[in-house]
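We were asked to recover a plausible sequence for a given structure. The inputs and outputs are reproduced exactly as logged, with field labels preserved.

PROBLEM: sequence recovery
POSITIONS: 56
GIVEN STRUCTURE:
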């Protein structure tokens, strides 16, 4: 699912990926860890953050 959202956002005109590697960013310090994210980590799942900015 995370790959799908990256593909969708990358294909949308007017948005720029803020990742230096054009994929995911480390969790921003300003974003709290969610219960859903805690559960994912506990179950051994990956958690990915996308960060885009509107450019138009």
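RECOVERED SEQUENCE:
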């Amino acid at each position: 699912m995370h790959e799908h959202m990256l593909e969708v956002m990358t294909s949308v005109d007017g948005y720029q990926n803020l990742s230096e590697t054009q994929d995911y960013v480390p969790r921003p310090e300003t974003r709290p860890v969610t219960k859903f994210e805690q559960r994912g980590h506990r179950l051994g799942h990956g958690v990915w953050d996308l960060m885009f900015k509107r450019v138009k």
